[in-house]
Amino acid sequence: MQFSGANEHVQSGHLTVKLDEEDRLHVLHPNQILAYKGHPSGREDRLMDIKGAYRKRRWIRSKISGPSELLIGLPPACKLHVVPIEADSTLLFDFRSVLFFSDGMLMQNRLQSFKHALITKEWVRTKFTGPGYLGLLSTGFMESLELDEDIPLYVDASCLLAYPEKAQLKLSVYGNTLASQHMRVQWELKGTGPVLIQTGAATDPQLESQLKQDGFIRRTLREVLPFGGVFIK
Asked: Can you tell me the mean pLDDT for 163-177?
C-alpha cells in the first residue's frame, strides 16, 4: 500500500492511494473518493453499524480492494495524516476524525465516563490495533507530545486527537485564578506514550479579528503620507 501527496502529512488537498492485489482499505467517507482506477468489482459498499452511523452521521462505508488506485479529496482547512498503527498500539482515537483504515486492523470501542462525555460530547473513543495504517483528519497540523508519569500535560479539550488507553486523564484547568477563569476546558494527562494534538482546532476570535485589522500606525501613515495608500498596503 502506497500513499502519495506527502509522506505523512498531506497538505495538498488530496491523497493518492495505490493498493496492491493483497491490499484492502476501508473508507468511512466514500464521497471523498474523487477518482478510482481499477476493476469495478474492487469497490464494495457496506452498511455501518448503528454506533458508527451515529458518530459519522452516515450509513455507508466502502471497502476498496487492490490492485487499484484512489484519489481522495480532503475537506477545506483539513489535513490528512497517515498514521502507522503497530500491533501493540494503545492509542484511543476520536472516531469522527478517522477517514480510512487498512484491512485486518482490530477496532474496539472504549466508553468514556459520564462526566467526560457530558463536557466533551465524546461518549466513545476507538482503539485500533495493527499492524496497519490509519487516515486521520485534523484541523491544522498534527503534533505528537510525550507524556510523563509525574509532570502533567495540559491540552485544550478541542485539540486532543488521541492518547494512550492507560493514561491518567481528567478534566482540569491550570494557572492562577485569573488564568483558570478565562481558559477553555483542558485535559490533564499523565502516563507514558504519545499524545496526538491538532493545532488548528483552538482559535481565539479576538486574535483573528485583530489580525484582520490594520494597526493604528499603519493606518495613520497611509492617511498622512503622500501616496500612502499606494505604497503602504
From this structure: 91
Helix (H) or strand (E) holding 187: strand 186-190
Read off φ and ψ for residue 161, nearest 5 degrees. Answer: -90, -45
Query: Is 90:164 a contact under the CB 8 Å cutoff?
Result: yes
Sequence-distant (≥ 6) Cβ neighbours of residue 186 within 8 angstroms: 154, 155, 156, 157, 171, 172, 173, 174
Q: Starting at the edge strand that comes first in sequence, how are the strands of the sheet with 168-172 ordered?
A: 153-156, 186-190, 168-172
Structural domain spans, the chain: 2-214
The CATH superfamily assigned to 2-214 is Mitochondrial biogenesis AIM24 (3.60.160.10)
Nearest to 128 by CA among 161, 101, 97: 101
Report which of residues 84 and 201 the model is more confident about: 84
Strands of the sheet with 68-73, listed across from one edge: 2-4, 14-19, 68-73, 33-38
What is the tens place of the pLDDT at every residue in 16-57?
Answer: 999 999 999 999 999 999 999 999 999 999 887 655 555 565
pTM of the model: 0.78
- Cβ neighbours of residue 160 closer than 8 Å, sequence gap 6 or more: 94, 187, 195, 196, 197
